[in-house]
Amino acid sequence: MSKLDSKIPPGPIDKKWTDHKGHIRIVAPANKRRIDIIVVGTGLAGGAAAASLAEMGYNVKAFCFQDSARRAHSIAAQGGINAAKNYQNDGDSTYRLFYDTVKGGDYRAREANVYRLAEVSANIIDQCVAQGVPFARDYGGLLDNRSFGGVQVSRTFYARGQTGQQLLLGAYSALMRQVGKGAVQMFDRHEMLDVVIVDGKARGIIARNLITGEIERHGAHAVLLCTGGYGNVFFLSTNAMGSNVTAAWKAHKRGAFFGNPCYTQIHPTCIPVSGTHQSKLTLMSESLRNDGRIWVPKKLEDAQAIREGRKKGRDIPEADRDYYLERRYPAFGNLVPRDVASRAAKERCDAGFGVNKTGEAVYLDFSAAFERYGKQQANILKLENPSKEKIIELGKAIVSEKYGNLFDMYENIVGENPYDHAMKIYPAVHYTMGGLWVDYNLQTTVPGLFALGEANFSDHGANRLGASALMQGLADGYFVIPYTVGDYLADDIRTGPIKTNTPEFDAAEKEVTGRINHFLNNKGTKPVDDFHRRLGKVMWDKCGMARNAQGLQEAIAEIRLIREEFYRDVRVPGKANEFNQELEKAGRVADFLELGELMCIDALHRNESCGGHFREEYAETDGPQQGEAKRDDANFAYVAAWEWTGDAGKANLHKEPLTFEEVKLTQRSYK
Amino acid sequence: MGNMKLTLKVWRQNGANDNGRMETYPVNDVSEDMSFLEMLDVLNDQLVRDGKDPIAFDHDCREGICGMCSLFINGEAHGPGRGITTCQLHMRKFKDGDTIHVEPWRSAAFPVIKDLATNRGAFDRIQAAGGFVSVNTSGNLVDGNAVPIPKDDADKAFDAATCIGCGACVATCPNGSAMLFTAAKVSQLSLLPQGKPERKRRALAMVEQMDKEGFGNCSNTGACEVECPKGISLEHIARLNREYLAATVTKE
Q1: ipTM for the complex?
Q2: Which pTM value belongs to this model?
Q3: Overall domain count for chain B
Q4: Which end of chain B lies in a sparser environment, N or C, as judged by fewer CB atoms within 10 Å?
Q5: Same structural domain, A410 and A516
Q6: Is A338 a catalytic residue?
Q7: For residue B176, what are the contacts with CB-CB under 8 A and spacing of at least 6?
Q8: Using one digit for the tens of pLDDT, what is the confidence trace for B116-146?
Q9: Mutation site, B18, B63, B149, interface A, largest A CB count within 10 A
């Protein structure tokens, strides 16, 4: 009964992509001019795709809700981008990047997609360098690398703590070059509110001009959703305020299956919540774990004294500190993958060792790095018997050069100088591995509708490794979709322009205006954010870092109640035909209220722990792996792809079995 | 919640054709840990509950990198404090009882959309005029390490490239000039070997577009550098001037 065909090409894994590219159909240059493609979202995936497709000769319409394509949330990625270049001669290879990613994803990703990702990773760096992306370089003028979690090589390329910004500005400049040529029509401050299906194929979208409120129809031969993840379902996350699931969710309701919605990445190093006014959380890059050591006090009374303000972290002597990641995972230490580091922080805080007022924070401490770098620097400067203070001062300067912008960011938010006091950090929602189900060609279950980057589910399994999101976004946009979309569009060279004065567009537009009018006419009493915060709390408490069956069942019931109340009592001021930010939020929260329920349903059905999905009932109870996630490969080595049936609580489950030909399934150990 | 009480004087303007006016709002329960935008969230929450029109303002990442937030606060772009955007401004910079003036970016080239939100599309058009390296996507480019780039050049190019396109430079400049924004992109690409082949064309095209958009002239007041949240240096304007001059005198 399953409709899922992953279309993984035959042959050995290292030949699949090359053979596939050699055999799929392509569209001749003259015919590309007759084909229109809509790209929704202008982050790394969307910006790269829109630019590349326009270069090839297609007519592209690109959409983003921000006031400029350059502001998509890829811009906020800090740490870096992985690529199997092996510039450091440390044994890296396409295979090792592939292997690390499959293992890091806790064996819940599709092997063929991951291999392709690793294969094109090196091209991405070359492409970005050619665009003028100023990556960090060493004194020889060559590209520099650093390490990220879950790997034992240095393969991460970076541009200080602003790698996402530099890569996005590279993609944006390529996009603007095409805008200047007229090959891309750019629609900023536009939000996609529905996808239009004609004869079973995606043939356009309904979008709202956010300045005038006008509802617009746009036809195309294919629609690419590059709309990012749905972490804002938790209200508090590291996502931008506007990041939302609406485009993906509307596609889901029009027939695109949703893959593994419960796989959420909780990033271990974020600035802790400070109060009820909080609107978002700020990440402190994983790269800091190269040099920062994570700890809590060994003694409960010390932790309590710190929480009550009677002691500071630096008052705790070395012998009384518990570097719990180094203790539990000696092989990877502070650089264990994100899911492992997050759970370990939660475990210590739940046990009463948290170090801020709320009890939900651990230290990220650079004092050892100050000393180490300081000594090195003293040697370089040939200082004889430098004082301890001098060493620390020299060390702080080096750390500042590496991570200065992150330290400044921390001080701005927290109001405490992280050079003098260890940073306090806590896990926060950061990324969603789940997303629209796509086949090897990045096509969803709706023909002509594609999903790229974080919006799809495909490459990271149940946990994403650091510096791999940028890699995937650009791989999909620059190097995958330009080939695979041609195979689909080869049938459309004689179709002619897609008309938008058809019953299908009429119906979709009517539904969109109906939803808008409902909100504006509702005259309830509570603002949109009120409901969003409540949804977020339910999701964080019951579908967050740790989940159990009872909690998930409660969450489903609570979400339904919030949703029902939302439609009854939300107040959206203003009018439809004007700049109306509350109206924008209302539409997004309405979709989060449905998605949240599906996430809980997915988490409830998956009776195992894997990656970011940790079910308390499924943990190792004894042996060296005690307390670690316990997978169930016999029953759950599949992708859960959910089909909308008209009711958020009644989605149909389809399964795509995952077969592993290259990588042997083992318990993921970082000890 | 917090214990600060503030008075806000906020620019309200219902669309580009409205004249606009300052309106006064008391805000209570402000905590010093709040960001400035979270303080506006609190005010908007109250306005919606009271059946009033909330204040429109642009914002997105709220971590100082997307460049979407703006606001002229007490006469300064991105408010008091250096090296930060409005979303990174925290209420601990203010005192209980303060009166705070909040206005949009004011520049002929950035028309007001509503209240504090403005249209900065002119920046995109300057970028589209030449702010790029003309290279297509290709899997057959030379290796990223084929051309070593001196670390100093790479670092300087990076410093220029950190511009977030927020428009604070324009809003701050007494002439409403966009030189710092334009210079940052021209400078980044002219410092890198990949950007050198089309440096002349780029400098001429971007400056031409900048002038077309109605930005004012640069008179080297240096105000832009002071208010730039990313500390983009005036040195880049000097480089743009050199690039532009060289391009003009050798133009065929």
Answers
A1: 0.98
A2: 0.97
A3: 2
A4: C
A5: no
A6: yes
A7: B107, B108, B109, B170, B215, B216
A8: 999 999 999 999 999 999 999 998 999 999 9
A9: B63
